[in-house]
Design brief:
The protein has 292 residues and is α/β, with parallel strands linked by helices. The mean pLDDT is 96. The structure holds zinc ion. Zinc ion (ZN) binds next to loops. Zinc ion binds next to loops.
Length: 292
């Protein structure tokens, strides 16, 4: 069984020229819930002046008609963001940083080490409130500014978050630099070091067309948790030329055609991608949706 975290409402929309209203964002989330997706990254607590697409996260979370068994998660980037997030009905909190210093400086205006210390504190604070969290290590497979990123650095940062109490680590390929053999190598090292009690997720962008190949490499190395975005929407506002996430319905199709269950209704999900295409008024990158 594959566990998908649908990141379309957050990673997918945050870079779109067309800004969806709070009501449209809620509708997207609710349509996704009807497809069998069991975890959705719905909002981000960022400055709306910097990322206007993600304004009013409180309103979005409060407006969702909840469905049993679906985890509603939100991304938090600062202690102030965490305070806001903890006042909502979110089920899980996602934290992120870039392992690469240059990327983190540009994205968060601090070194990776400064972000690690801040996130360690936030993991503990969320834990005290009983909120499960996921720590997402961006640029884990390479940095558009620095090039190679040390696997050792990735593993040591993951270890710090695990020590702080986080049981879920996601390695993110923020700008689509990973290749399948690299994925297999890093995942194998991760499991060798931390075992399978830590839930490892993978988050790929399709910038160089390797998204699904990287998902398969992760799957073969033992990973069962993947982030993806309906319609293949997405891209980091701070990353040059970053394109969309791995497309959820294309990934679901890959797993289903291999006989691996995802719990998702592919037909319904593809309909959501087509609906989203209308809302965004541009052609999306998904492949399955083009067959409909
Ligand atoms: Zn991403």
């Amino acid at each position: 069984m594959i566990h998908i975290c649908e990141v379309g409402p957050r990673d997918g929309l945050q870079n779109e020229k067309r800004h969806l209203s709070v009501q449209q964002r809620i509708e997207l989330i609710e349509r996704l819930m009807e497809t069998g997706v069991r975890k959705i990254e719905t909002v981000s607590f960022v400055n709306p002046k910097v990322v206007p697409q993600m304004s009013d996260p409180e309103e979005v979370v409060a407006g969702i008609r909840r469905k049993k068994g679906v985890i509603i998660a939100g991304l938090v980037l600062s202690p102030r963001g965490l305070e806001r997030a903890l006042e909502t009905e979110l089920d899980a909190i996602h934290f992120t940083l870039a392992v690469s210093d240059t990327f983190n400086q540009r994205n968060a205006r601090r070194t990776a080490e400064q972000s690690v210390m801040e996130i360690e504190d936030m993991i503990r604070a969320a834990g005290e409130q009983g909120k499960p969290c996921v720590a997402i290590l961006g640029t884990a497979f390479g940095c558009p500014f620095e090039g190679d990123v040390s696997e050792e650095k990735v593993l040591r940062i993951a270890e710090r978050f695990i020590w702080a109490g986080c049981r879920n680590i996601t390695l993110a390929d923020t700008t689509g630099l990973a290749n399948p053999l690299q994925v297999k190598r890093l995942v194998t090292k991760f499991f060798a070091e931390f075992g399978k009690n830590i839930e490892l997720g993978l988050h790929f962008h399709n910038t160089r067309g390797l998204g699904l190949a990287n998902v398969l490499a992760g799957y073969e190395a033992g990973v069962r948790h993947f982030d993806s975005s309906v319609g293949g929407t997405g891209g980091c506002p701070f990353a040059p030329k970053a394109v969309g996430n791995v497309c959820t319905e294309d990934m679901v199709n890959m797993f289903h055609s291999m006989g691996v269950d995802t719990g998702i209704d592919l037909e319904r999900l593809t309909d959501v991608a087509l609906w989203l295409e209308q809302q965004l008024e541009r052609r999306l990158d998904g492949m399955m949706m083009k067959l409909k």
